[in-house]
Amino acid sequence: xxxxxxxxxxxxxxxxxxxxxxxxxxxxxxxxxxxxxxxxxxxxxxxxxxxxxxxxxxxxxxxxxxxxxxxxxxxxxxxxxxxxxxxxxxxxxxxxxxxxxxxxxxxxxxxxxxxxxxxxxxxxxxxxxxxxxxxxxxxxxxxxxxxxxxxxxxxxxxxxxxxxxxxxxxxxxxxxxxxxxxxxxxxxxxxxxxxxxxxxxxxxxxxxxxxxxxxxxxxxxxxxxxxxxxxxxxxxxx
Length: 238
What we know:
Helices cover 54% and strands 15% of the residues. The chain has 10 helices and 8 strands. The strands form 3 sheets. The protein has a 3-stranded mixed sheet with strand order 3-4-8, with helices on both faces. Strands 5-6-7 form a 3-stranded antiparallel sheet. Mean pLDDT is 79; it is low at 184-195 and 225-235.
């Protein structure tokens, strides 16, 4: 340690990171803690990057770890934290903020609306509907069936905040939105892999038929198709 190093201190907003050495030492402590988010346990390098990212956004170290999630290889921020960051901005117009929900006669949510305003600009209103969710292939997912109103709310909020405050969010997506995109990517990868494997099996069946081979081998290959789908869905290479 250099003689001019000023050690980290504890302030009103938690620990104050003053150097890369402070960041690395603190990250090692956090990575060993039971309070560390599970995605970061035993991974001080990831802890350090998340904290650094949070500092750039104005979040203290522990708030960064709780509110920044890496989904599908990209950092994102949970919707409540994104709102808190925008509210703390000097450009936020408190009087303009409004979130509302439309329901049908049975009490089922139909659409969520979010209105935000940047000081000196016109209000921005964004809406996300269940029809949008169905078109995007979201409505039949478990989280959407269990918490439809909350998911609609987060989508409308994400669009409004990202459009009005891109400088505050630094281009980050909202985690609830990024999770849906990650699920879509997994599904699409599985479908492509299954389709490719099906074409390969079809060619082999035609070749085997021409060579007079028995169907027993073909039946065994058909089972491979489902094995491929399970491996891809679980993240293993096809």
